[in-house]
């Protein structure tokens, strides 16, 4: 019987990760992510799943970010009844992220209908907050470095990937073959997370390539962020910081707490975290001590450096305040959520600043801002961009090209096949070439919806 992998997402793009392992009539989905970015990618979320959800026997999540987990509520609503296996950190984060994603989609649909800028009448959410809460019942927590059986005769084991709380690489044993999914690999020198574990032996490897064509600069996040915040504070401006609620929000808060303690930025500079999801995620660092680098005192400082903004009314009240101040709000690529209202309010003033903190997928508003665009489309209108745009180059939670190669090189023996995934085509192909040239391993960049042997 053949053993195949079907690439249903995360192929030729850095979003929508879904890899279906098929053998003996069984189908196991590794990751179940939303497509984000370009409209033609986002439209895939609305297409019928290439594999009927009722035919999926189980799901394993490498981590909680929406481009790896955000399709789960729709999969469950459409007929998937199996188990979702994850680490405890991933489960805890999904319990925050997925309902919030459903809530944001409901809010965005309501806003579009109220203001009449959607082409659909009525605009509908992809799924609801209730759909997301329902699918959480299917989660089953697995321990790190401990074998479990997602299906009869199939064995799986998680190992630490760094990146965010709960993030893991996955080793899957099926039909005498060993398949290793890197998941999103963190940086060995990340300010928050522990380094990735060395990879185990495997026949086939799927390796992410978000930064496959780049090398991170030596400058650290404190130096970059401190310079930006000093500048905007001195001119009395407002810094709007789109953050990924899981990971980057906490890294920025940790950095700000250090910068204030060191006197690099004014101790009285007001900081606001306008994201209930990021607030709840920050609290999880106390529950998962040991899974990250921070001490209890550092977690406490990170938790207290900002005023936490929970309600929509509190968020709207920020607009009445004058600078200088710093507003952290999700989402990290400015694709939705409260950050859109802050951008609409502050992006047109030259005293203000927008600080981008991570990878900006092509087609997102974050990528538009990073490209130096003179206008940005918000709530159906094209608004002028006068604020200074700063993109932090040292804030990424992903391993760069050199670090990805170093991880792969640590395998006990070279795998028979490497599939380069979860990256834009240029990044994926650059990493493929380096894997072949420098490590002498067979590497392929699979096409979307293609099927390859495992």
What does the largest sheet look like?
Answer: 7 strands, mixed
- Mean pLDDT value: 94
Outline, from the CA principal axes?
A: globular
Total beta-strand segments: 22
Q: What percentage of the residues does DSSP assign to strands (E)?
A: 15-25%
Radius of gyration, CA atoms, in whole angstroms: 21 Å
Report the total helices: 14
The poorly predicted ranges are none
Distance between the termini: 12 Å
- What class, by secondary structure content? alpha/beta
Q: Percentage of helical residues?
A: 25-40%
| Spatial arrangement of strands, main beta sheet | 6-5-4-3-2-1-22
Summary keywords:
454 residues; alpha/beta; 22% strand
Summarize the structure.
The chain has 454 residues and is of the alpha/beta class. It is built from 14 helices and 22 strands. Strands 6-5-4-3-2-1-22 form a 7-stranded mixed sheet. The protein has a 7-stranded mixed sheet with strand order 7-8-9-10-11-20-21, with helices on one face.
Give a written overview of the molecule:
The chain has 454 residues and is an alpha/beta fold. The protein is 31% helix and 22% strand. It contains 14 helices and 22 strands. The strands form 4 sheets. It has a 7-stranded mixed beta sheet. 52% of the residues are buried. The model has no long low-confidence stretch (mean pLDDT 94).
């Amino acid at each position: 019987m053949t053993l195949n992998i079907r690439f249903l997402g995360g192929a030729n793009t850095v979003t929508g990760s879904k890899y279906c392992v098929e053998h003996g009539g069984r189908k196991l989905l590794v990751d179940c992510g939303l497509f984000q970015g370009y409209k033609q990618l986002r439209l895939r979320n609305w297409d019928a799943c290439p594999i009927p959800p009722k035919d999926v026997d189980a799901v394993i999540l490498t981590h909680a970010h929406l481009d790896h987990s955000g399709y789960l509520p729709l999969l469950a609503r459409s007929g998937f009844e199996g188990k979702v296996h994850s680490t405890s950190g991933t489960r805890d984060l999904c319990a925050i992220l997925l309902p919030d994603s459903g809530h944001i989609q409901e809010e965005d649909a309501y806003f579009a209908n109220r203001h009449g800028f959607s082409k659909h009448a009525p605009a509908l959410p992809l799924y609801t907050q209730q759909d997301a809460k329902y699918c959480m019942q299917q989660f089953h927590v697995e321990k790190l470095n401990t074998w479990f059986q997602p299906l009869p005769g199939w064995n799986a084991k998680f190992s630490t990937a760094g990146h965010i709380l709960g993030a893991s690489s996955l080793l899957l044993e099926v039909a005498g073959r060993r398949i290793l999914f890197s998941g999103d690999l963190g940086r060995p020198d990340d300010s928050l997370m522990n380094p990735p574990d060395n990879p185990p032996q495997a026949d086939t490897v799927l390796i992410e390539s978000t930064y496959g064509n780049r090398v991170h600069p030596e400058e650290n996040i404190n130096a970059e962020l401190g310079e930006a915040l000093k500048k905007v504070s001195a001119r009395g401006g407002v810094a709007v910081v789109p953050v990924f609620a899981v990971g980057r929000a906490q890294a920025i808060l940790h950095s700000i707490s250090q910068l204030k303690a060191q006197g690099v930025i004014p101790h009285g500079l007001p900081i606001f975290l306008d994201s209930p999801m990021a607030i709840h995620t920050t609290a999880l660092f106390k529950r998962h001590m040991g899974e990250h680098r921070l001490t209890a005192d550092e977690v406490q400082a990170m938790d207290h450096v900002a005023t936490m903004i929970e309600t929509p009314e509190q968020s709207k009240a920020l607009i009445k305040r004058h600078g200088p101040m710093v507003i952290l709000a999700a989402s990290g690529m400015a694709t939705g959520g409260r950050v859109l209202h802050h951008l609409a309010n502050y992006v047109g003033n030259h005293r203000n600043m927008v600080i981008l903190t991570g990878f900006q997928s092509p087609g997102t508003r974050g990528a538009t801002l990073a490209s130096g665009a003179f206008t940005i489309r918000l709530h159906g209108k094209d608004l002028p961009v006068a604020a200074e745009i700063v993109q932090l180059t040292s804030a990424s939670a992903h391993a760069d090209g050199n670090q990805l190669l170093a991880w792969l090189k640590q395998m006990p023996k070279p795998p028979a096949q490497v599939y380069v995934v979860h990256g834009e085509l240029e990044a994926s192909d650059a990493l493929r070439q380096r894997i072949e040239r420098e490590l002498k391993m067979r590497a392929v960049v699979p096409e979307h919806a293609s099927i390859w042997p495992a």
